[in-house]
């Protein structure tokens, strides 16, 4: 373990970090990731100019990520075990996923389309001003499935591998990909390093997340989720979002992907899953899938730690 901690200690600290997130939710003021985003925006404005954009993007990534990661590493070494759990709490976003998506489900259940559109616009970049119930349900379910990996399982994977500083490294790299990893004129070169590093850090966690969705699918959906993963994921431009979203949609037994509107332009995306079009209730089902996968990871982490401890006793 890169953290230097015994496996059982690390697993228990992981449980503590998850419990803190569920109990407290996102920090309302002075959230470290909010401050990081502001620093990243400042670096991008200063460095994303002139030539050598890929090199400038690498410099910006290094200046943004390495200092806080090294600081987290030092804090873990000097501050004791509680620092690991506290850093995981700041990095993980399980309750945030629930708090941002279940209100969309509630609004759709009440038939309040205007509120559902407003709530959905807070979490996705696609246009929602004319979206119908199925469009909003699809956006909410997709956000839950994909961000289940980015905000929860990828963070847990790197925490189990390296402790608190591993969670910080992953979450900051993932945040920069979300900010800079676009194939637009502005970010195509500058954000390429951020996108590739995130792809590398996320490669194993994304496939473990996809496997978790497959294992937790109900009944006949388990085989369907596996087949959707293998057949549909390669069609997505993102090497990590494809497996996660395809397996999740298959596990839910619904059709996601397809048409979505960005900046007034309709984009035809590859299909995800199989079955009827998404409905409001599928947002709740997607949340329950992410929640059960979180419980599965916690149980497996504890069992694996006990086994490893027994093997080295």
TrEMBL record:
One GO biological process term: cobalamin biosynthetic process
Subcellular location per the Swiss-Prot or TrEMBL entry: Cell membrane
Xref: Pfam families: CobD_Cbib
Pathway named in the protein's UniProt entry: Cofactor biosynthesis; adenosylcobalamin biosynthesis
GO CC terms of this entry: plasma membrane
Transmembrane segments annotated in the record for this chain: 6-24, 58-90, 151-173, 289-311
Keywords: Cell membrane, Cobalamin biosynthesis, Membrane, Transmembrane, Transmembrane helix
Membrane topology: Multi-pass membrane protein
Sample GO molecular function, one term: threonine-phosphate decarboxylase activity
HAMAP family in the cross-refs: CobD_CbiB
Function noted in UniProt: Converts cobyric acid to cobinamide by the addition of aminopropanol on the F carboxylic group.
Similarity comment: family membership: Belongs to the CobD/CbiB family.
Protein's name according to its UniProt entry: Cobalamin biosynthesis protein CobD
Species name: Massilia forsythiae
